[in-house]
Amino acid sequence: MKSRRIRIGVVGLGRIGWSFHCQTLARHRDFELVAVADTDPARRREAEETFGCAAFARYEQMLERADLEAVVIASPTHLHKDMALSALRRGLHVYLEKPMAATYADAQAIVRAARRRGRVLSVYQPHRAAAYFRQVLQIIRSGRIGTVYHFRRGGFRYVRRDDWQSLRRFGGGMLNNYGAHSLDQALQVTGYDVRRVFCQLRRVASLGDAEDVVKVVYETRKGVLGEVDINQASAISPYELEVYGTRGAVWLEKDRIHCRSFSPADLKRKRLNRSLASPDRKYPRDDIRFAERTIPVAGKHEVDVYADLARAIRTGSDPLVRPAEPLAVMRLLEQCRQDSRRILVTPI
């Protein structure tokens, strides 16, 4: 028997709200897009004409619809808390844009409210659901590269950011904007038990007052390193994603995943030389026989985030992105700000 489609609304008809959330929900087999909310009259008219849904100037008006079951909040970050709490009070399931909220305390309040109401709460983390990352996780979990001890994620380009996400008062800055993606991936690989954090925030090319260059290094209690570079003032792009393990490594280059690993059984016997006189004055070396694979990124591995959300709503099971995980991202973002203390300014 075919399941009835879940009636859902979208708050915010900006870039991601319009181009992804509305467009995807309008054609998704599990959802019926019945309402949207935005302060811009032209965008409301466009939604009415394009999707045949109701459009409201105020999100509170949209939440009053008796037939609404779930809501996507794709508004600027500083608005997330009040909107999410209002939706949860109405008994709606909530799907939030990243980052979850403006502060860790706000995110905690949202999670507590969802738990009290027994509603599904999740955060849109598309890089977690992306095919390339699902494939990288498969390789890691297979044990092919041994025990992971270092994860690196980088994003590099040169752009003079001039929108609201360059302004701190709206929750802007690259730590929030792209860091929420990269740190979510990092924590999935390294584990969530973060022990200490180093973070530097810098503004170079941005027209706003928020950072556009971010460096984060953290260590878990098990000693695993997570490292994130977000650089919007870089003329080069040195790496995308790298994972180092005790038996090899895996890395991403555009639409290719590379894996280089060895089997401990193939290692030649070797004994520690405690002498201070190196034999033949030579440095130690190993001729390791690495197995190398290049794996194309395959779209079939991508998670349909809205099919996943529908499953969680219908069954009461956990979504792909469980509330505790973006909450941990929010905590790490706060630790980064505390460690950096200020944004260094190095103008062009």
Give a structural overview:
The structure is a single chain. The chain is an alpha/beta fold and 348 residues long. The chain has two domains: 118 residues, Rossmann fold, CATH 3.40.50; 189 residues, Dihydrodipicolinate Reductase, domain 2. It is 32% helix and 25% strand. The protein contains eleven helices and 15 strands. The strands form two sheets. It has a nine-stranded mixed beta sheet with strand order 14-13-12-11-7-10-9-8-15. α4 links the parallel β4 and β5. α4 runs parallel beside α5 and α9 packs across α11. The radius of gyration is 23 Å and the shape is globular.
Compact description:
By secondary structure, the chain is of the alpha/beta class. The protein folds into 2 domains: 6-123, NAD(P)-binding Rossmann-like Domain (Rossmann fold); 128-301 and 331-345, Dihydrodipicolinate Reductase, domain 2 (2-Layer Sandwich). 32% of the residues lie in helices and 25% in strands.
Strand order of the largest sheet: 14-13-12-11-7-10-9-8-15
**Cα separation of the termini:** 61 Å
The domain count comes to 2
Structural class of the helix and strand makeup?
alpha/beta
Strand element count? 15
Query: What amount of the residues lies in strands?
Result: 25-35%
Query: What is the global morphology?
Result: globular
Order of helices and strands: EHEHEHEHEHEHHEHHEEEEEEEHHE
Radius of gyration: 23 Å
CATH structural class of the largest domain? Alpha Beta
Output the number of helix runs. Answer: 11
Instruction: State the CATH topology of the largest domain.
Output: Dihydrodipicolinate Reductase, domain 2
Please outline the major beta sheet.
Answer: 9 strands, mixed
